[in-house]
């Protein structure tokens, strides 16, 4: 049954929640134009109509050694290959110094699940970064890396197990060991946790694509623990492979439920953002699967978990699909503050269009990206280009921090994009031009924008 326009109005105004069935209905039948308009209206209610944000951060993939074998990954190495690596302090210093030089405020540290690295390695890396680069926020270690530490980390009073097998520990031991690890990392300098490794939560999908990786429950439990300890996190979804549309909505439902739990419990940490991106196939084992024939008169096998052909063909997501899912995420995730545009995978102009489908944030400049680019995506933007995309879309670009507080609005002529006089040579000659003084790091005077508690029923 079509979703009533009255229901849509209430969802836009924040007085009613979209059900999973309604989200499915909208996904299947609402026009692209309507979805974009409705999602933009929610974004305008939460973020106003003037500014759209970005963050100056850098992805640093500190190791590519990984015990998991995700079929969508072209980045991982076993550890003995010539190009397997773990970054040294000198290499980290160089990357963070470059980040600092462009006025960066955050580093996103993410690796493989490297079973050879002890807990002390992570503590030492954080402590060192905090001492050497105190103004840079450490957004680090997605749930799968932390779950691997639960398996193999030597922590006094707790057992270890084989890489990728933390689930063999007693649940109470697993939880207590995770909390001990997170407390130690937080004390060493961990500020917040990125939502990598979310993929698709549904078990029948996850067991086919995330071989040896954190289960959905483990992923959610890591974030639960982080929220209790006062850390902010993001949530992600990688779609457009073997999953059904219902699996995508179920994924969002689990995040919305988890956020409700954090809000009800009045935990000091929350999910602050959600970002979804389509699977990139180049160089990945899963990418070699044949494409599902869209002309076929049979449904996509991924729509039925019991179909024996499930997982044996791909239904890739293009720009339209991506924008529809992003718009649905803005309408559905009423307790998550920010929806991010994935220009890194979709390209700058679809990323810009995402601002008209519910996204309020353009994410980060890409000084360096190793994981998605290993799978064939090579889009790269600097601050001026990112600002220009936002301004050309009709918004004022604004630099933000990790919890979406605006650090600097670019209204004036000294804005990064407005200082560029020759765009034809800009990319080549000055990928990251020097800038004015860094924004104040005294964030106490800034208005916090934290996910509002939801009062509507599910
Ligand atoms: S996606 Fe991450 S966890 Fe999976 S194999 Fe690649 S590096 Fe490892």
Which features does this protein show?
binds iron/sulfur cluster; globular; 12% strand; alpha/beta; TIM Barrel; 13 strands; 458 residues; four-stranded parallel β-sheet; four-stranded mixed β-sheet
Describe the structure.
Helix 3 (32-47) crosses helix 11, helix 5 packs parallel to helix 7 (171-188) and helix 6 packs across helix 9. The protein is globular. The chain has one domain (51-445): Aldolase class I (TIM Barrel), CATH 3.20.20. The chain has helices at 5-13, 20-29, 32-47, 89-101, 119-132, 143-152, 171-188, 203-209, 216-228, 245-264, 319-332, 343-346, 348-353, 371-374, 383-392, 423-429; strands spanning 51-55, 57-60, 69-70, 106-109, 137-140, 192-193, 210-211, 232-239, 271-278, 338-340, 361-364, 396-400, 406-409. It has a 4-stranded mixed sheet. A 4-stranded parallel sheet has the order 6-8-9-10, covered by helices on one side. The protein is of the alpha/beta class and 458 residues long. The longest helix has 20 residues, at 245-264. Iron/sulfur cluster is lined by residues 66, 68-70, 73, 75-76, 112-113, 144, 213.
């Amino acid at each position: 049954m079509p979703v009533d326009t009255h229901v849509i109005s209430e969802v836009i105004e924040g007085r009613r929640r979209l059900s999973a069935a309604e989200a499915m209905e909208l996904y299947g039948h609402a026009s692209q134009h309507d979805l974009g308009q409705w999602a933009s209206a929610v974004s305008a209610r939460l973020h106003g109509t003037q500014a759209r944000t970005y963050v100056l951060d850098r992805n640093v993939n500190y190791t590519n050694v990984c015990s998991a074998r995700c079929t969508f990954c072209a980045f991982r190495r076993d550890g003995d290959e010539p190009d397997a690596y773990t970054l040294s302090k000198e290499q980290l210093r160089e990357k963070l110094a470059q980040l600092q030089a462009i006025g960066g405020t955050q580093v996103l540290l993410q690796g493989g699940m490297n079973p050879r690295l002890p807990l002390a390695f992570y503590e030492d890396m954080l402590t060192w970064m905090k001492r050497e680069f105190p103004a840079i926020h450490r957004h680090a270690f997605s749930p799968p890396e932390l779950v691997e530490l639960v398996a193999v980390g030597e922590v006094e009073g707790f057992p270890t197990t084989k890489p990728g097998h933390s689930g063999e520990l007693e649940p109470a031991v697993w939880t207590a060991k995770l909390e001990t690890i997170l407390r130690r990392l937080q004390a060493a300098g961990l500020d917040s946790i990125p939502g990598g490794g979310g993929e698709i939560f549904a078990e029948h999908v996850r067991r086919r694509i995330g071989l040896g990786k954190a289960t959905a429950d483990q992923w959610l439990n890591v974030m639960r623990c982080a929220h209790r300890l006062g850390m902010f996190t993001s949530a992600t979804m990688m779609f457009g492979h073997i999953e059904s549309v219902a699996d995508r909505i179920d994924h969002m439902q689990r995040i919305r439920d988890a956020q409700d739990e954090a809000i009800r419990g009045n935990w000091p940490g929350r999910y602050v953002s959600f970002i979804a991106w389509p699977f990139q196939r180049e160089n990945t084992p899963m990418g070699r699967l044949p494409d599902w024939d869209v002309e076929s008169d049979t449904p996509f096998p991924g729509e039925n978990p019991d179909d024996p052909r499930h997982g044996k063909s791909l239904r890739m997501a293009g720009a339209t699909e991506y924008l529809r899912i992003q718009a649905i995420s803005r309408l559905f995730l009423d307790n998550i503050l920010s929806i991010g545009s994935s220009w890194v995978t979709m390209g700058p102009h679809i990323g810009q269009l995402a601002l008209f489908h519910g996204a309020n944030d353009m994410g980060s400049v890409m000084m360096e990206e190793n994981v998605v680019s290993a799978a064939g995506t090579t889009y790269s933007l600097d601050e001026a280009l990112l600002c220009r995309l936002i301004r050309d879309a009709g918004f004022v670009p604004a630099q933000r921090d990790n919890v979406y507080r605006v650090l600097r609005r670019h209204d004036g002529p000294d804005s990064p994009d407005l200082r560029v006089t020759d765009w034809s040579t800009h990319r080549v000659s000055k990928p990251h031009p020097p800038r004015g003084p860094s924004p104040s790091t005294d964030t106490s005077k800034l208005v916090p924008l934290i996910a509002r508690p939801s009062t509507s029923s599910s």
